[in-house]
Amino acid sequence: MKESRVDRRSFLKVGSLAGGGLLLNFSWLSAKAVKNEVTGQNEFLEFNAFIKITPDNVIQIMSPNPEGGQNVKTSMPMIVADELDADWSQVVVQQADLDTKHFTRQFIGGSQAIRQGWTVLRTAGATARQMLKEAAAQKWQVSVSEVTTAKGMLMHSKSGKKATYGEMATAASALPVPQDVKLKDRSDFHIIGTPVKNVEGKNIVTGKPLFGIDTIKEGMKIAMIVHPPAFGLKLKSYDAASVKKLKGIIDVFDIKVFNEDYERTFFDTTTFNEVVAIVGEDTWSVMKAKKALKVSWEPFETHSYNRNMFGRKSSVTVPAGRESTSESMAQMTALASKPANVKRKDGDIEKAFENAAKIVEAEYSAPFLAHNCMEPMNFFADVRDDKIEMIGPLQKPELTEQSLSARLGVPLEQIDFKMTRLGGGYGRRSYAHWAIEAALISQKVKAPVKLVYSREDDMTAGVYRSTYYAKYSAAIDAHNNLIGFKVNMGGNPESPIHENRFPAGAVENYLAEDWEIPSNITTGSFRAPRSNFNAAAEQSFLDEIAEAAGKDPIDFRLDLLEKAKSNPIGQRNDYDADRFIGVLKLLKEKTRGSKLKNPGVSAYFCHNTYAAMVVDMEIQDGSPVVNKVICAMDCGLIINPDGARNLAEGGIVDALGNALFGKLTFNNGATDQQNFDQYRMIRMNEAPKAIEVYFVENDFDPTGMGEPTFPPVFAAVANSLYRATGKRFYHQPFMSQLS
């Protein structure tokens, strides 16, 4: 059990609701710096909780973070409610708007919400509970230590007195805030760790308006964007007059998303900075006008812009040219065979390979991937002289608000962002250039506007997962021990390497090198950024090494991890070998005795969580069939078992689809795929027949769940396909090799 104290650097505001009741507004900055996987920076943890208790005993808990299917709108309030000792059936959960005065870190990214909110959310609930106890003790003239709580009730056993939280809420709001708050023992949790239904489940299945694209406002106009047909091109001219004559069309004009001298921040990525906007009365009219508009494009020259990545300032060069996938792949293949930037070197790698009895080598690649959120990009904007109303799905609303403030030249206080449920995010909705486009369009036409991207818009002018290539080499001695390990890895336009992750620290002679190819194709975060390829290649290669050494794939990994645990190589290993061992042992236990035909093993650590997989596949009539997936995870304490299991299952199915089918290619700067008839997604009948998810039980605080199940699936699929077909699968998507 850990005790939390609200220190002097913290503050808490207490007020009374209209008509009585308790309003608690928490906001504090912890003294501990936590590394954020999204930014890679050490940032101070900032978070707020917001609790309302009315005299008639309605307990409202605000959910501060955007909800995009990760179930935080249920799990975060569960944490507050448990420490509050509330009756969950009396709790009403409300999605908070963007509110930088009372909430911070209102974002989706890095699987950080529960991990970074854990102690703060608990303290919010515990502080409110303590104040209610003190109010009851004063009214009943008893010691506060004699007042107990359970499911929204205050009790004094000696006198038999009882009261609901609502009955004491107004009195509690007048009390000073306690300086020391003791959190519950974990054995006393009655909500945390229990299966709780998604608070939005009924609204989702009954089709209630939840998503940004559902937004309808009086006087609202519809807008769409026309962007260049290929990367490497820019706007030259367009014939607005002919389109303006069409029925239902209000205006046609060009906009610049960011001014030329603007210093872009981390998520200020935009595919094309200058685009043409078409505004009309209805969607159909705008779609027809978009097809009719005549636009001329021209190649752009190599240019640069300034960027500030959370304090790290740089100049980013965007090369000219129109890229093709075949040429890019040839470049990457060549670079992977040459010495590159050394990221880590342990021992004498050259001597290890000279003395090897056996050398194993393999090369891996992965294509660009489109996010393909089921809800296309959209945003509502109503820009007025004195107020700006923004409604839509965002992953980083606070950062987007800052960018919008800078672009429009208005104070933050003038902007009101309302967050809707995301119909898919996966990193794509971190880059909210379309929200800024919506605001600029509304400002121009002086009317409320809903901007909607078509599927083709997002697939041909998206923010993609980079394309990657890697070459691995392993040296095995005469006793079948791994004595040397080399990886040369890079990508277009970024390197995916994580040089300090396993098997670094477990092999005495180790070399990690990387490289990058400049590109004007826009890329960004994609579920488990960089890890999604790193795990795919690394874990596939470890399977091949295990076979060459004549060892069971799970036991081979366990042996390496035991070395890293007892005698680690180097000081920069960013994983806990003991916890890694734990998930592999759990996986081994759960697969023992299972009648698996072609089990493919994989295990990976990312976003502070450990995940191990077995995927069992077979080939039927030339197509892969996934019989079962068994997943073992160590993500610390589980808040909501149902939500955690569902999130793991979602990551597994998503990864299966991308591993087997996902592929975006370019020809002369343009995507070859423009819609789902060309870009293959996994279908319902291709999902696993069964998924089993198991969690390691321990006393660690909770960590991430949204991304860690995604990366290891790729290699587990490749390793299972090898057992089913007898050949190794090195290049994604695997269906291209299978067929």
Task: Write structural notes for this entry.
The chain is of the alpha+beta class. It is 28% helix and 28% strand. Mean pLDDT is 92; it is low at 1-12 and 28-48. Strands 14-16-12-25-22-23-24 form a 7-stranded mixed β-sheet, sandwiched between helices. Strands 2, 3, 4, 5, 6 and 7 form a 6-stranded mixed β-sheet that branches. It has a 5-stranded mixed β-sheet with strand order 20-28-27-26-21, with helices on both faces.
What is the gist of this entry?
The protein contains 17 helices and 34 strands.
Strand order of the largest sheet: 14-16-12-25-22-23-24
Number of helices: 17
Main β-sheet description: 7 strands, mixed
Helix/sheet category: alpha+beta
The backbone outline, from C-alpha atoms, is globular
Strand content: 25-35%
Helix percent band = 25-40%
Low-pLDDT windows of residues: 1-12, 28-48
- How many strands? 34
Measured between the Cα atoms of the first and last residue, the distance is: 55 Å
Please tell me the overall pLDDT.
92
| Radius of gyration based on Cα positions | 27 Å
